[in-house]
Amino acid sequence: MASEEDDDPIIQEIDVYLAKSLADKLYLFQYPVRPSSMTYDDVTHLSAKIKPKQQKVELEMAINTLSPNYCRSKGEQIALNVDGTTSEDSNTYSVKMMDKQTFTSIQSTTNTSRYAAAVFRKGELHITPLQGILQMRPSFSYLDKADGKHREREAANEGGDSSQDEVEEDVKAVTVRFSRPESDQARQRRILSYDFLQKKQAEEPWVYLHYHGLNDGRSDHERQYLYCQAMGGSENTELVKTPKEYLAMLMPPITEEKMPVGPSNVLSMAQLRTLPLGDQVKTLLKNVKVIPFANLMGLLTPGTDSTAVLRCIQQVALLVQGNWVVKSDVLYPKNSCSPHSGVPAEVLCRGRDFVMWRFTQERSVMRKEVTAIIKLLPEDVKDFLEHMAVPRINRGWEFLLPSDSDFIKKHPDVTIFANTHYHSLFLLLKTVCLSVKEAMHVSGEQRLKAAHERARQNQPSLQKDLSARRQGKGGAGPSGGAAVRVKEEPVSDGEDEPMDTSSSSSALPNGLVNGYPSAATSAALNPHNGHGGTPMPSPSPELRDFVWNMFRKQHVLTLSEVKRLFNLHLASLPPGDSLFHSISDRLLQDTILMSHCKQILVPFPAQSTAAADEQKVFAVWETGETFDKHRQVLYEIFMKNYRVRRNVIQTRLTQEMGDQVTKDDVDRLLKECCVSFGGMWYLKGTLQS
C-alpha cells in the first residue's frame, strides 16, 4: 500500500518499445572458450552457413599464419595429415598449411521466450525478442578426416595387389528372410538412438550466408531495425492487461517437449532434462537413493543454479554424513504397503527413518539390532539397509559413501537444519517406540528388575502419604504453604513416560522450554509465588550468554519467539550436551530481565487473538551505546499504543533529543525494532495476521 511515508519513490520513467523487424532472425552468439577482451570482430570470416530448423551455424575464420604465436611446422603437419600430398580442389587447406578454423554452434537454451536484445536511445528502451542463443565452439572435424586418411593408407598397405591371386569363391545358398513388423517399443528405442538423431539432422540442407563486418554499411543498416519502426502508429497503444496476464507474458509457462517414452527400467538423461528442476532432482534421488551433492550437480544441466538445487533436494532427501539420502515418504508413498509383509507405508517410513538416524550417529549398524527395535520383518530391514549401506564382514552394514566433509564445511546452515530435523525425529521415534535408547542398550529383563527395585524403594513414602491423606492431616510444606496431594496410582513397569514432542513453541510440556521433564520443577514450588519448596535455580553463564547475544541481534522478541529460537539452539547442540537441561519459563524470563532487557507492556486490543506468550514482549534496554536513548523513547511510545505512524515516532524523537535526530537514525531504529504493515509500524512479533 502506497502512503505518504513511502521511502521508495519513482526516480525515472522510461518508455519501452517492442521492435519486431528482426524478431524471427536475431541470434545471440556466445564464445565461451574465448575471453571477452579478445573478440573476433577483426578476424576475417571466410564463410558462414546455417540450418534454420535446427538453429545450427558454422563459421569459417582465417588464422593469422604470420603471427609470432603461430607454429608453422605444426600447421604444415596438420595440413599434411588431413589432405595428404595431393593437390585437389576438395582439400581442406589449399595452401598446405592450417590457415583457418571452423566454429560450430550448440544451443544454450531451447526456450528463448524470456530473452531479448535491448538498445537505449534518447530515453527510450527498444527490445527485440531473440530467435536463438548459440554457443560457438571450435570444431575438430579435420581430425576425423585425418584419421580417415590414415585408415585408408593402412588398408591399402595391408591389402596389396591381390587381383592376380583372386580365387573364385564357392557358390553358397542364400536364405531369404523377411523382417518381422517393428514393435512400438523397438521403434521408440530407434528414435532415441544417436544414429537416428544424426541422420535427421543431416537431412536438413545448409543455407549459405554472406558475412558483413561490424563496421560495414550493411551492418549499420540492419542495426536500425533494432529500433521500433512504427513509433507513432496505432500499434503503440497503452498496455491494458491485468497483473496476472502481464506476469504470464513476462514469464510464459515452459512448454515440455513430447518425447517418446523409453523402457520403464531405463532413465533417459535427455528426457530427464526436459522436466522441471524439482522433478529432475526427485527422479534422480529415487533411482540412486544416495548421492553426494557434487555428483548430483554433475548429472543436471550445466549451469544449473546450485542454490535452487539445494532448495529442491531438501524437499525430497535428508542429509546423512554430508551425503543426500532420499526421504522415506518418497519411496513409500501414502496408501502403499510392503511387498514382503504388507505393512503400511507409515510404519515402513518410521522404520527407515530410524535406520537413517542411526547412520547419523555411527558408520556401521547391526541388522539384528535394528530389527529388534523397529519390529519389522528382516526382509523389510534388508531393503532399508540396501538403500544406503553395504554389508561388511564382522562389522554389520556400513554406510555406502564416505562422509562428505567438504559439503558440511561449505553449507553449515544446511547441516544445522539437518541436525534439527534429526533431533525432532529422534524425539518422535522415542515417543512411538517408548524408549529407543533404552531398547538399544538395556534388555527387557534388566528393565523389569529396575522397575521392581524402584517400586520397592518408593513404597514406604507412598504408604506414608496415603495414610496422612486418609487421616485428613494433608501434606503441608515446611513453610506452611499449600499441601501437596499424592494421587494413588499403580506403580509403573519402570519405563519412562514418553516425551511430549510437540513443536509448538507456545505450549511446551510442564512449562519447560526444551521439552525435558525436570524432577526439581515438578516437585518444587516457586518461592516467588508465596509457596514453599526448593528455590528457583540461578541461570547458568551459558544461558545468560545465549540470551544476551540473541537480544543484541534481534533487539525485540516475544516470549514465544525466544522459546522457538532456544529450541533451535538446543537442536543444534551435539547429542548428550546437557548445558541447558531443565530450563523453565520463569527461569528464562528472569534471565532475560537480568540481561539488560525490560518487558514492554504493549496495550494489545481487546479482540486480539495473540496467545499469552505472544503478548509478553521483551526488548534490550541498555547496550552501552548512545543509541540506547533512541530505543527507550521508541519503547515508551509503544507502551501507549500497539501501532503508530512513522511521523509520530520522528516527532517524539525530535522533542526528546533535539534536531540532531536524522532520517538515518529513524531508519535504523525502525529496522532494528519494528515491522511495517499498511502504513503503520508495530514492534517485532506484535503484528497479528
Automatic annotation (TrEMBL):
InterPro entries per UniProt: RNA_pol_III_Rpc5, RPC5_C
GO cellular component terms, semicolon-separated: RNA polymerase III complex
Basic and acidic residues bias spans: 146-156, 447-456
Top-level lineage group: Eukaryota
Parts of the chain that traverse the membrane: none
Protein's GO biological process: tRNA transcription by RNA polymerase III
Region (Disordered): 146-170, 447-538
Domain DNA-directed RNA polymerase III subunit RPC5 C-terminal: 437-689
Alphabetical list of Pfam families matching this protein: RPC5, RPC5_C
Protein name: DNA-directed RNA polymerase III subunit RPC5 C-terminal domain-containing protein
Designated gene of the protein: POLR3E
